[in-house]
From TrEMBL:
Keyword Transport: yes
Protein name per its UniProtKB record: ABC transporter ATP-binding protein
Organism for this UniProt entry: Streptomyces lycii
Residue span(s) of domain ABC transporter: 8-228
PROSITE patterns with a match to the protein in the record: ABC_TRANSPORTER_2
Length: 228
């Protein structure tokens, strides 16, 4: 399955963990600038699908293509380079580095790709501003609220200008007010930069920020619009 103009596609993905069938022939497609919500009950295979799409988990069979290239045909080094240059990640619990300040956390992916400290921190400061958390720039993650920490994590995921943002239950640990604001800021920033967002969630209120919904049940993904 290669929809015209799709950025990232998956076809017939199967993945087992021992006796557990996590993915049972899942298809998926996303275009540049599109926000797709991956919905479904707990244990249905949402995270496994995201991990396969991001080249973190290798499916037993089926294929994932990013800009026409099959991920499984790349070497491990090529795949990690691709993840660093083209993909961004946000998880349920921000997973910030506790020893670094918030601005240093946002700057980290830039520093790892060789950007000088001054420039990395200047760009990170702009992103913190955009996510409305410039006031926590000098604080460590342990000193900020859950909502602030998650905005810092979103800033870190977008600072490198990824083409695809993978977000796995990004508001799962937040109250609804903070969750909604994080979703507003995340989708606004992603749409501005034409970043495609694969948004895993089981909350309809969060999925409401997407352009399209894909429902995963027992390892099978169904596009609710009938187009992928
Ligand atoms: N690393 C793993 N080892 C063993 N089983 C796993 C692993 N990851 C996921 N699973 C199993 O695969 C199924 C799908 O899991 P997952 O993709 O995490 O679902 P979801 O994100 O929808 O909650 C579940 O039954 C889960 O227990
Ligand atoms: Mg999950």
């Amino acid at each position: 399955m290669t929809p015209t103009g799709a950025l990232l596609t998956a076809g017939a993905l199967r993945k087992t963990y021992g006796a557990t069938l996590a993915l049972d022939g899942a298809d998926f497609g996303i275009h540049p600038g599109e926000v797709v919500a991956v919905m479904g009950p707990s244990g249905s295979g949402k995270s496994t699908l995201l991990h396969c799409l991001a080249g973190i988990v290798r499916p037993d069979s089926g294929e994932v293509r990013y800009r026409g290239r099959e991920l499984s045909a790349m070497s491990d080094a090529e795949r990690s380079a691709l993840r660093r240059s083209d993909f961004g990640f946000v998880f349920q619990f921000g997973q910030l580095v506790p020893e670094l300040t918030c601005v240093e956390n946002v700057a980290l992916p830039l520093r790892l790709s060789g950007v000088k400290r001054r420039e990395a921190e200047a760009r990170s400061t702009e992103w913190l501003d955009r996510l409305e958390v410039s006031d926590v720039a000098g604080k460590r993650p342990g000193e900020v609220s859950g909502g602030q920490g998650q905005r810092v994590a979103v800033a870190r995921s977008l600072v490198t200008g990824p083409r695809v943002l993978f977000a796995d239950e990004p508001t799962g640990a937040l109250d609804s007010l903070n969750g909604e604001r994080v979703m507003q800021l995340l989708t606004e920033a992603a749409r501005d930069s034409r970043t495609a967002v694969v948004l895993v969630t089981h909350e309809p209120r969060v999925a409401a920020y997407s352009d399209r919904e894909v429902v995963v049940r027992d390892g099978v993904a169904r596009d609710m619009a009938g187009v992928a």
